[in-house]
Design brief:
single chain; 124 residues; alpha+beta
Length: 124
């Protein structure tokens, strides 16, 4: 029991300190990652990316009004988890919503997700 209470207190303290990342900060991360991409990766990125927009995700994204989605291809969304500080990709059913089972806490740079997505598209 005692450890459960301590855990709850710790989570509450972390949540109180955490602040959602701004659109400008996400754009900075994208621009830095784009510099690391080779020409083929940049063309792929340019084809699937869009201006960052908040997508809903419950329960983890609720306190920050969602997470920043930055690209879509088919039913896959690439998004930034500002709680864990990394880019992720998830399957979605409804545009604008990252499903609960689509929550990931990768701490990848964007170019890593783009390379993996390109490999997936190329090889299935």
């Amino acid at each position: 029991m005692r450890s459960g209470r301590a855990s709850t207190t710790r989570v509450t303290a972390i949540e109180m300190e955490w602040k959602p990342i701004s659109e400008a900060q996400v754009l900075d991360l994208i621009n830095e990652s784009r510099k690391c991409m080779n020409p083929l990766e940049r063309r792929f990125w340019d084809a699937i990316s869009f201006h960052p927009e908040k997508w809903q995700q419950h329960p983890y994204g609720a306190s920050g009004s969602g997470f920043w989605a930055v690209a879509v291809i088919g039913r896959t969304v690439v998004w930034y988890n500002d709680i864990e500080h990394g880019f992720n990709r998830s399957q979605y059913l409804k545009f604008g919503q990252i499903p609960q089972d689509g929550y990931w806490c990768n701490q990848d740079d964007l170019e890593v997700q783009i390379k993996q997505l390109m490999d997936f598209v190329a090889t299935g």
